[in-house]
Structures are given as C-alpha cells and as structure tokens.
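Journal club prep — side note

Before the paper discussion, L.F. wants everyone to see what a predicted structure for a comparable chain looks like in token form. Sequence:
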Amino acid sequence: MLFTTLDWLAIGGYIVFALGVGFYLTRRASRSTEDFYLAGRTLPWWVAGTSLVATSFAADTPLVVSGWVRSGGISQNWLWWGMAVGGALSFTCMAAWWRRLKVTTDAECIERRYQGKAARVLRGFYGGYHALITNTVVLAWVLLAMLKLVRVVIGAEDDRQDQYIVAVALVLALSYSFLSGLWGVVVTDFFQFFLALGGAVLLAYEAVADLGGLAEARQRFAEMPKETTALMPHHGSGWEDLAWWTQGVGAFLIFTAIQGWLNKNADGGGAGVQRYSACRNEAHARGAALWFNLAHYCLRPWPWILVGLASIVLIDPAQLPMIAGADGTLEPDHEAAYPLMMATYLGPGLFGLMCASFLAAFMSTLDTHFNLASAYIVNDVYRRFLKPKASDRHYLWVGRGMEVFIGILAALLALSANSISNLFTFSLALLAGVGPALLMRWFWWRANPWTEVAALATSTVLAILTNTTVLGASEAVLNIPYPVSYLVIVVASVAASLIATFATEPVARERLESFYAKVQPAGWWGPLDTDGAAKRSLLPLFAAWMSGIALIYGLLFGIGSWLLARPSWPAFACALIGSLVLKGTWRHALRAPVDRIDS
C-alpha cells in the first residue's frame, strides 16, 4: 500500500515525540544508576502500571492473538490468559515484597535471600542469563513480528527492504533508551499505550463496520464453528486423546493450574520487578500491578480478537504468505492476517496512525528490554564481580554499551526465525521449572541456592530437548507436544529442586533473619516464625489472591460475552464479587504496616 502525506505525518510526529523525550530526559537519567534503571524510585502507580502494559504489547501481540483466533479459535488464547492466575498474586503480595526489598533487578534478590559462593555465582549467572538469553529471545520475536508487519504493509518483494525499515525502528528505540534510561522508557510508554490501544480499537471498528456493523458482525461470528468462537476449549474426546491435552480441556488445565502461576514470572518477572522497585512505595507498587493485570487481560485482547474473527470472513487464506509448518509442509501464515487487514481496510491518515501505533508498541517493548538487559549486566555482573568501585558515570556508559550489544544480538536471532508463536512457547518452556523454585524463596525458609540451580538446569535441558527452535531439527529429541512438555518440565524440575534442597545445607539463620525482617513474607518460616504470624497470614493472602483471579476473569469473560452477544451478567457478577472481597482483604493480605497510595 502507498503511504500518503497524512500517513507520513502521523508516523513522523510520533518519531519526533519519542526522540524529543529521550533528549529532554537525558540529564535526569544520567544523575545515577538508580535514575537510569529505576527512575529514582519515584514512579506513581498509574505510570508504572501503564508502562508495564505498554511493554507487554509489541508488534507481535496483535499478530499472534489474531493468528491464534484464525487457526485455533479464541480459546487458544488460554496459552497466556492462564497467566492471570500468577498475575493476581503479584498485586496480592509480590509487588509489595519486591518494593520492600529495594533491589534493582530480580537477580539481586539471590544474595539478599541466600549467602555464600553458590549465591554469588547464581546471581551472576542469572544476570547474564536473563540479559543474553531470555531478554534476547523476547526481543527476537518482537523484531520478527515487525518484519512480518512491514513485509505485508509495504508489499516488499526484497527481504532487505523490510529489514532496513525494522533496523531503523530498532535504532530509534535504542536511541532514547540509550539516552534517558527508564525515565524515557516510562514517559514514552505512557503515550505509546494510548496510541497503540487506540490503533487496535480503530482497526477493530473498521473491520466490524465492513461486516455491516456490530449486530451484523455478531451474526456472522455466530455462524462460525463453535471451536472458533468458544471462550473455553472443548476439543478432544477424553484424557486418552492427545488433542485433549494439546488443544482441549487438558491444555486449559495446564495453562491455568500449572503454567498460570508456575512460570518464569512466578514472583514478578524482570520487567515487573523493575517497575515495582521504581514505585514510590509498596502501595503504588501493588496499584501498578493491579492496573497492569486488568488492562493486560481484560481490555487489550478484545480488539485483536474481533479483528481476527472478522479476518476469517474478509481475508482468504490464499492471500496470506506461506511459511513452513511444524511438519515441514507449507501453510498460510495466519499471523500475517492482521497487517493485511490494516493495509486493506484503513484509509489515508488512519493507516498512518495505525502504523504509528505499531511503531509505538514495537518501541515500547524494545526500550524496556534494552534497559532491563543492561541493568542485569551492570548490576549483577559487571559492578558485582568485575569492577565494584567505579563511578556511576562509568557504569552508565557500560550499560549504554550493553544496550547496543543486546540490540545486535536480538536482530541476528530474529533473522533466523520464522514463527513468533514458536519463540513464545520456547521462552515459556525454557524457565518453566524455575517458577516453583522462585516461589519457594519467598514462602519457605528451607529453600537455598541449590534449589534454584537444580530447577534451572533441569528446566533448560528439558526445554531444549523438547523444542526444535534451538536445535534447528525437524523433530525434537523428546517428541512431547506443548503444553504437555511444560507439565513434564515443571514436575521434573520440582523433583530435582526438592532433592537438591534436602541434600544441601540450609541458609544461615543470620541471613534468613535479615530477609524475613525486611520483607515480612507469609508461609512456612519455621525457626523464624515463633508466633505463627507468617503461617496465619496465608489465609487472608489466599482470599485476596482468589478474589483477584475472580475479578480479572470475570471482566475478561464479561466483556467478551457482551461483544459476542452472549449472556454477560454472570461474568460481571463474578467480577463484582471478586472486587468487593479483594477490597476487604487488600490490607490484610500483607504482614507489617501497609503504605497508602497518597503517602
């Protein structure tokens, strides 16, 4: 599609804004590493939470979600909807505990919780691992999604043309992250969130309008197969049927009961921990986590899902580019349907605005992961082990250099991949078994560094053996389909971590007492919990957690049911009850005095 002057004005206006923010905030970000990586720990909840929402919405997200709707139906989104189970735990307690600990990265927590050489090595390894592997994989699928978007939108016949365009966008994101650190990231994220969400709503409106309006679109959706429009999976005849575990009820159970809270972000995740630590106090950290989960799960998916459903009617599979499927045969690339809808159904000006919204979403994810990867290297590797007594100015320039290196590494990986979905599931499996160990460190006094070492080693090895993404083979060494492979990885990793825990010495009492006094965690803290307060606090914490889950899923299902012309009041009633219970248990879910938002 040819770009008009209005389109270029929309795109150019956003680029000028982003770069302007980067230059304006450079001086503030350069005052210290705490300013560069944590915005001086002064962020209010609505800025930190919105930044998290923007970070988790990149060019890949609409493509993947709408592609899943086309190829497997709405219920395929349980692959990430299930993670709301763990998300509710973040605003129940995790966000506040991280803010109390006052760390820069989640890897730093290792030496706050454990001690000795094993803890030092594990912290350094986590810092390098997250910076060079987990963050790079995320950046790679984001870059891949942008390549697909550009390829469809401009109709590029030469791969180098779309690569050049994405490279320029990458440099733009890197430039203001390089200059202004987290200050620039959160300020641009706040604007990017509304631009990206507005663009998604705009395309959904145009797609529905082309079907004749919402009433007519609902009728067309109702005529589709139930497997396409069902909110809950129902594929498979029973537990002995493989489809029951990979696409049906069995997969749903794994997504919610296992992957939903025992995942790589079980205790907050790198980007989440950074935002919570950057908040004014623990109340703002919890508020940021609550707002993020409501916006992430309840508000954003439905415009993408509507576009995916509409594209089934409006876009013939023959119009889509072909890619190699899991069995090596060519199949339509359903992830390309979303940008094709943009190019087909948006006119001049609106098309440019939509492209600007994608550029905003793309850059909001890149800048966060550039800054976060740099924080891991500087805070947990370079300053901790290589040069511990340098000036803040020195660390800032090392961190900026690392952002450039990570950007190059991610670009090389993106050029070697072809499926966003495969990279996404591989990133989940890679640290699947670490989730339980991450929670053990907060709820169980007996956990030690070897608990996490064993879980990490087991999870990494099994993830590689059950996935073709890294090995580049046509079949995995262990031919276990996802998400069954996720269940296998978690069970094996938990077993390995428990064996390692009881085979090694517990953490010294002095270190446990320091951590316990600082965080005031709940759970099983035997020798330290002399009055039983930690164990008693589990009940209100659990009630708040469950009510938070009810609130999120009630709103998610309520909005979806209304859009699809189905009864929505039971879901909204569930959300209302959940919100009331959460309000009543909000302060009681935490031990120790709870800060107020206005303090």
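L.F.'s comment for the group: The longest strand covers residues 322-324. Keep this in mind when we get to the figures.
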